[in-house]
Amino acid sequence: MAAPRLPKGSATQHLLVLPEDVGDDEVEVLAVSRFPQARWEEGEVPQPRGIMGPMTAALGIRAVSANMTPARTLRVARLSTVTGPYAVEAEDAVSLGLPPWSTYAYVVAAPRERGAKPYPGGDRDGLKRAFADAMPVREEERILQWLVAVARRLGGAVRIGDNGIVLVPDVDGAIDLTVYSDRWLEPDQALAVAQKVHPQARISQGTATWDGPLPGAGRAADTRPAWVTEVGGSGLRDALEKYGVDDPVERQRLMDESSAYDELMMAAPPPAEAFGVLVDLEHDGILSVEAAAETELPPLLRGLPWTSRGVVAYRVHWEPRFIEELEAEKPSFEHRVARSRAAPQVQALARAIHAATGGEIADEADFLVDPEDV
Tell me, what's the pLDDT at 47? Predict the structure, then answer.
């Protein structure tokens, strides 16, 4: 489809650059996924021309010309908008330093809000490199993080208006998935599900054991610290005696109750409220499934009938042998090879858990993923 050409003066603004096969409805859905109040600006829908065809998107059904894709303005935050799509001509791509596959661009209007220099450490998104003097904060930070997440999801790029640096996030750089469900799997049930995919899966357990306090702990005739008598004086001693702490009989009763409670908990421990399942991938690292109640849901899941009853998050996470490479903008070849082998296994685990629990699957950016695409 034809689109208006990228306007002059866009070089000073942030740009979201996308390949040919991405439609504006996908950008819209990802905007609503991060900013629930995102909406098209009133008056931006043009009068239809030519052959019409309905298109379903997150905010309803709208008519779009079969002959053109008009530029529209999507308000994603109070002070920030995304306008497009604009066509990126070959000469535009060259002058702006964009990748050769650049087909469409969205012009981003956001407040310029900067803070301190970036802290040392990982920079998977490249934002520390792009803002070496002062990192974005507040709304601009949220917008830029969303732009990078969209570019990673859709195979695009982000051009920084300040200095022309182009960020092309690795589409395979974030492979973790999370299954959100209203069904709780007991540890042995989750283990059985995981073992259908990876027979070597096991429940994560601590290597140390605790058999209760040491014999005689707290049962001495006088458990007061020396400073109580040496520094506190008679007033503090009187206060301890007033509340029974200095009474040997009361102290013995409390210790007996504590021991009885410890024995009860060790004999019949309460049901697990969180647990993990581990899969050793040897040279490729470790896969883990971390299950726990979750209150911070992706925006698209908030307020739904089934999430109001409580949600369990099953986080399928890959940890490489050298964990610092997870946050590297350009990780080593060995890391990328291990990741390429781990990614299908992460997806297989997420599919199996989703089949057992239902619910929704989300990626690391909290964008929902169709189970059929996993």
Answer: 36
